[in-house]
């Protein structure tokens, strides 16, 4: 048996289980919360699960219509996925299931072998240079000229294609490169007078369990954040009203919608700590509420989940002391909602405990805040998520990247709110300039980032957030 035949047989053996239980890497665009929720339901309905990283994903599914920078980041992630792989986009919630089902045959189809021969990235580089049949610059083979123009169609299936991104989604960055395309670090003085490497690493916009289109640009010295800036990528088109304020036209009582929102935030936080069973449980309760199941019918199951979560010493260990936000700082930064009502010591643990308390109150028919699940509009007209993002940026210095991810999850700013409302003081215009500079390689802040990862922190819950389980944090249902 020749080597090519052996590799083909191996690919077929890998593709068969992928088609039966796909691992889906979900890329969510600002304003596409309803599409994301429908896609998560569709993935579970097919017996699949959400992937933790590009390396383990079979399908890349884009929820919503990506902007230029968002598509460039998506192209980079696509290049990091091994075969068998498939790619699709969905822009309407009702099309999520059909698009996913249509992609499954592509995982075992003949196009996989042809695509493997064309690839020029970390999985298929052959040392012949960067120009292979016109695949440079993040282009997609087989997309046609109407990329991004859906013409009113709700979903687009893409089984294969180029998508390689030479340089991590940005062309022409300056600076000397190390082997593998990574940028060399700068040097800066440490507090003890030593010279330490300084890296400019963006978190997002494509990360599992990460707010849609959010980018936290960090400056790292060693493995600790020294500075951070936050922005949300602009929407590719008109951004609809925030889903958690309107419910996307669904007939869901305000209390049930608030409870569902808190459960969505809890599911993201649990997943980042590696407790997949608790994350899946929170998301199932969320989906039941959004499907119109009465709150009384959900309340008993939520009580069981709440007791398990509150007893978890490991979860508390992962979030204790992260992002202490005092009431005075919260007022100064424009934070309102559950983040302000959290009890001392006002850290990430206090915030998820507050979500649990307010979810119980909402399910029991208690009073629901008029300002929405994240708080009230600030006096200057900023949405409540602006204050939450301000807090995340201010509290990030001094933390490792894994702790920054937990910090952001414990505040959970909603990019739908930020994309739908103009930012104060011309911040939106500045963010768009930053986005332009990022695409064309200008600006010292983005000039030394790690290109191939595009800011993606590989491996969820690294460091403090990783699953240190009393009985395990994996997909199993063991108590923690």
UniProtKB/TrEMBL annotation:
SUPFAM superfamilies: HydA/Nqo6-like. Residues 115-163, 426-435, 444-471 have a biased composition (Basic and acidic residues). Residues 164-178 have a biased composition (Gly residues). Residues 103-182, 365-385, 415-480 are annotated as: Disordered. This is Uncharacterized protein. It comes from Streptomyces chitinivorans. The lineage of its organism: Bacteria, Bacillati, Actinomycetota, Actinomycetes, Kitasatosporales.
């Amino acid at each position: 048996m020749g080597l090519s035949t052996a590799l083909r047989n191996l690919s077929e053996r890998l593709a068969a289980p992928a088609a039966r239980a796909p691992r889906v890497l979900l890329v969510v665009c600002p304003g596409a919360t309803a599409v994301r929720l429908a896609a998560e339901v569709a993935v579970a309905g097919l017996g699949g699960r959400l992937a933790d990283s590009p390396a383990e994903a079979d399908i890349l599914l884009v929820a919503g219509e990506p902007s230029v920078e968002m598509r460039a980041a998506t192209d980079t992630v696509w290049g990091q996925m091994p075969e068998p792989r498939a790619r699709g986009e969905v822009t309407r919630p009702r099309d999520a299931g059909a698009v996913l089902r249509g992609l499954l045959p592509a995982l075992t189809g003949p196009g996989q072998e042809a695509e493997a021969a064309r690839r020029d990235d970390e999985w298929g580089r052959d040392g012949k240079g960067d120009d292979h049949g016109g695949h440079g610059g993040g282009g997609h083979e087989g997309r046609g000229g109407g990329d991004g123009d859906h013409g009113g169609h709700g979903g687009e299936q893409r089984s294969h294609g180029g998508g390689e991104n030479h340089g991590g989604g940005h062309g022409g960055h300056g600076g000397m490169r190390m082997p593998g395309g990574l940028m060399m670090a700068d040097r800066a003085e440490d507090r003890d007078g030593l010279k330490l490497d300084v890296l400019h690493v963006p978190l997002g916009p494509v990360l599992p369990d990460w707010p849609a289109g959010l980018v936290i640009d960090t400056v790292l010295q060693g493995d600790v954040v020294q500075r951070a800036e936050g922005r949300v990528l602009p929407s590719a088109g008109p951004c609809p009203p925030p889903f958690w304020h309107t419910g996307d036209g669904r007939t869901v009582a305000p209390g049930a919608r608030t409870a569902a929102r808190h459960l969505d935030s809890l599911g993201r936080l649990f997943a980042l700590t590696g407790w997949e069973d608790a994350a899946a449980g929170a998301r199932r309760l969320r989906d039941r509420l959004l499907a119109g199941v009465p709150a009384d019918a959900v309340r008993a199951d939520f009580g069981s989940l709440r007791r398990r979560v509150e007893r978890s010493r490991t979860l508390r260990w992962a979030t204790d002391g992260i992002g202490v936000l005092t009431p005075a700082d919260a007022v100064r930064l424009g934070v309102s909602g559950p983040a302000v009502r959290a009890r001392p010591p006002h850290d990430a643990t206090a915030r998820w405990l507050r979500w649990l308390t307010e979810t119980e109150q909402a399910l029991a028919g208690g009073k629901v805040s008029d300002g929405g699940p994240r708080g009230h509009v600030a006096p200057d007209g900023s949405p409540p998520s602006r204050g939450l993002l301000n807090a995340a940026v201010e509290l990030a210095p001094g933390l490792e990247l894994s702790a920054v991810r937990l910090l952001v999850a414990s505040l959970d700013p909603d990019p739908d709110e930020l994309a739908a409302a103009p930012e104060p003081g011309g911040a939106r215009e500045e963010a768009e300039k930053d986005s332009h500079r990022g695409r064309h390689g200008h600006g010292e802040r983005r000039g030394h980032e790690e290109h191939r990862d595009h800011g993606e922190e590989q491996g969820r819950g690294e460091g403090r957030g990783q699953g240190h389980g009393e009985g395990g944090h994996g997909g199993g249902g063991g108590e923690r």
